[in-house]
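Appendix C. Worked example: Alcohol dehydrogenase 1-like
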Amino acid sequence: LVIKCKAAVAWEPKKPLVIEEIEVTPPQANEVRIKIVATSVCHTDLYHLLEDEAGFPTVLGHEGAGIVESVGPGVTEFQPGDKVIPLFISQCRECRFCKSPKTNQSGRDPQMMASADSRFTCKGKKVLQFVGTSTFSEYTVVNQIAVAKIDPTAPLDKVCLLGCGICTGYGAAVNTAKVEPGSTCAVFGLGAVGLAAVMGCKAAGAKRIFAVDINPDKFEKAKVFGATDFVNPKDHDKPISQVLAEMTNGGVDYSLECIGKVDIMRSALESCIPSWGVSVIVGWTDLEDFSARPVQLIAGRTWKGSLFGGFKSKDGVPQMVKDYLDKKVKVDEFITHNMTLDQVNDAIELMKQSKCIRTVLSVSPQ
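Step 2, the predicted output written as structure tokens:
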């Protein structure tokens, strides 16, 4: 049966979302229809809304959690009532990418921010699906290779954050940078992803973790996640890379850029020690080229990127949920606001103005 439900539709770029009644078709072969219980707003939702021109109308949202409502033909892994997190990176377990330990991407990932293959319509128009998930809706339909079944005791209004931001930052430190015990690290940008990166550095045993941000209000929060030192570039009249080099006898072992600004990516690279420093690009952007001088790498630095923290999604997300339930990773501390789906534009505004870390929207009652 087609379900009629509420969703926040982005009809066009740079405009407020509109709460509409949409139609969600039943799941087709290998698909799962999910009732979304909670979702949070991530910077990537804003990026698509404010920076992309194509890919509208769409239902945004990709950091969510819910309950399986029905399954299509050929689905054996899920049944109605299962608690799940939809994933913007799939894991089919069959392609050469899924079989390789070198990547967490699948050959079957949608390459587009908003895919035309959608199960949504509104007012007679097709509404695109955002990164295969679209969690700003009471119901969504997702391919089974992009759904993680999680512990049935997990609180969905908390673990929804593990669908993107926390795994992205935490994994960038532990999986991509491979931070070592006793090392020094610098994290640039203290949004949810940066704070999760700080938490990852601490979990990996780093002895000094520099939290770098131009907003000093964020430093207290960073301390909660394990930061030991705070550097505000605005307090210095020389480049931040020089400041960090002087504080660490030549540069940090690992740096992570968690903002998505190309000039800061370069600063992060130049902040790590030339002989063996590793700098990881975590912040998402596709608007400009980055640059550096070859000599920055020739002496032995490594510059690499990280998508979803290097976690193979269907394996990594349930494990992170378990680690949260076992109190090995923090999640609740990221949540600064709780709202309902009807207030999604307020939540977007808070994020635009950097007044929140994560706002969780309740979408459907459990």
